[in-house]
Design brief:
Fumarylacetoacetase, binds magnesium ion, five-stranded antiparallel β-sheet, alpha+beta, metal ion binding, Fumarylacetoacetate hydrolase, domain 2, binds calcium ion, eight-stranded mixed β-sheet, SH3 type barrels, fumarylacetoacetase activity, 428 residues, Fumarylacetoacetase-like_C, globular, phenylalanine catabolism
Length: 428
């Protein structure tokens, strides 16, 4: 019998009792941010559960102040045994056979907050960035994406750089401009260089793009100078979010040789509000692609695993009734695994800290419909897409990009909800 909650959850919901993703929310205007867990159309207020003394396992009974914080960093720092304990406490508390919360109307009233806000201003719940992000790194782990970008930017002879098959390439992103789903993105201005013979121009980006990605949220992290072993790296990852690494292709193409992306990406990166734990994703793990050549020993894992997560990106133009699906991809296409990314990041002694964000890189698959950005889908604007009859080379003002992702279980989904953002006009 599948685990069931006393809270009714629609079979299509992303948030059944098997998921229990973590976020941070404000139950109403002016109230303090607090951690919560999504179930069906509700958020469980973890500060209320902690205040009621219900985190009573051996670890959390001494550390339940981690649920009276404006972000999840303190909980992340506690590590995997505490995460496991919290999950089993919450799964028990929410199960249909457990009376503690089910039959306590006063506690239910305090701890269960409707996620779909009612129309009234008073109980408009607000979802916030769940973590304080000290550092954000973005990898480049899809071979299909690397090949397509290489062909477009560097030509078809050697599209994938020689180092790519030996190490998970990355660049340091900008943590300050990571924003929560629903935040508008102002079209950036910057320099572009349309062709060899013309001088550079300055103005609003003419090639604004999305990048369909996921990102790992780092747990305890490591001490400076002490790398994480690749076979222990999974214990350092709390969970995953959806991510859109907005990219201004014209700014990027002109600025990024030889030091890598800078202003073409640092104007905004959107993440989804709910962190789905690796524990909830475990039933959906699958073998990662076979790596050829074999990676160096520090990247060779005993078990190399991905997750079967269906991913979609949609674009909804201003005033359009419906959005159009532009990408259909899957997390399982990634060549370098999350654990290889994390181990590689620390191999020189670099320390990761709780709440650090590690983007996977754009998740493109082999089929043209699975390409994870407009640069690939329109081949740098040469082949416009049709969105319900309207042509698109790159994003226009008013376009909303919506990324979704979920794993299909037997009679339920473990999903990520949505990660969305709308392009608004540049500054004058
Ligand atoms: O190959 C290039 O020149 C550029 C690639 C990217 O812009 C991708 C990037 O940000 C990393 C990724 O998302 O995979
Ligand atoms: Ca990226
Ligand atoms: Mg970005």
């Amino acid at each position: 019998m599948a685990l069931k909650s006393f809270i009714e959850v629609h079979p299509d919901s992303h948030f059944p009792i098997q998921n229990l993703p973590y976020g941070v929310f404000r139950p109403g205007p002016g109230s303090t941010p607090r951690p919560g867990v999504a179930i069906g159309d509700y958020v469980i207020d973890l500060s209320e559960i902690a205040s009621a003394g219900l985190f009573d396992g051996p670890i959390l009974k001494n550390f339940s102040d981690c649920f009276h914080q404006p972000n999840l960093n303190k909980f992340l720092a506690l590590g995997k045994p505490a995460w496991k304990e919290a999950r089993s406490t919450l799964q028990k508390l929410l199960s249909s056979t457990e009376p503690t919360l089910r039959d306590n109307a006063i506690l239910r009233e305090k701890a269960l907050v409707p996620l779909i806000p009612f129309a009234t201003a008073q109980n408009k719940i607000e979802l916030l960035l769940p973590i304080a992000i000290g550092d954000y790194t973005d990898f480049f782990s899809s071979m299909h994406h690397a090949k397509n970008c290489g062909t477009i930017f560097r030509g078809p002879e050697n599209p994938i750089p020689q180092n790519w098959f030996h190490l998970p390439i990355a660049y340091h992103g900008r943590a300050s401009s990571v924003v929560i789903s629903g935040t508008d993105i102002i079209r950036p201005r910057g320099q572009g260089h349309p062709s060899k013979n013309s001088p550079p121009y300055f103005g609003p980006s003419l090639k604004l793009d999305y990048e369909l990605e996921m990102a790992a949220v780092v747990g305890p992290g490591n001490e400076l100078g002490r790398p994480v072993d690749v076979n222990e790296a999974a214990d350092h990852i709390f969970g995953l979010v959806l991510m859109n690494d907005w990219s201004a292709r014209d700014i990027q193409a002109w600025e990024y040789v030889p030091l890598g992306p800078f202003l073409g990406k640092s104007f905004g990166t959107t993440i989804s509000p709910w962190i789905v734990t690796l524990e909830a994703l475990e039933p959906f793990s699958c073998d990662a692609p076979v790596q050829d050549p074999n990676p160096l020993p520090y990247l060779a894992e005993k078990k190399s695993q991905n997750y079967d997560i269906s991913l979609e990106a949609h674009i909804k133009p201003a005033g359009a009734k419906d959005s159009s699906v532009v990408t259909r991809s899957n997390f399982k296409h990634l060549y370098w695994t999350l654990t290889q990314q994390l181990a590689h990041h620390t191999i020189n002694g670099c320390n990761l800290r709780p709440g650090d964000l590690l983007g996977t890189g754009t998740i493109s698959g082999p089929e043209p419909e699975s390409y994870g950005c407009l640069l690939e889908l329109t081949w740098n604007g040469q082949k416009p897409l049709s969105l319900n009859g309207t042509g698109r080379k790159f994003l226009e003002d008013g376009d909303e990009v919506i990324i979704t992702g979920y794993c299909k279980g037997n009679g339920y989904n473990v999903g990520f909800g949505t990660c969305s953002g709308k392009i608004v006009p540049p500054l004058p």
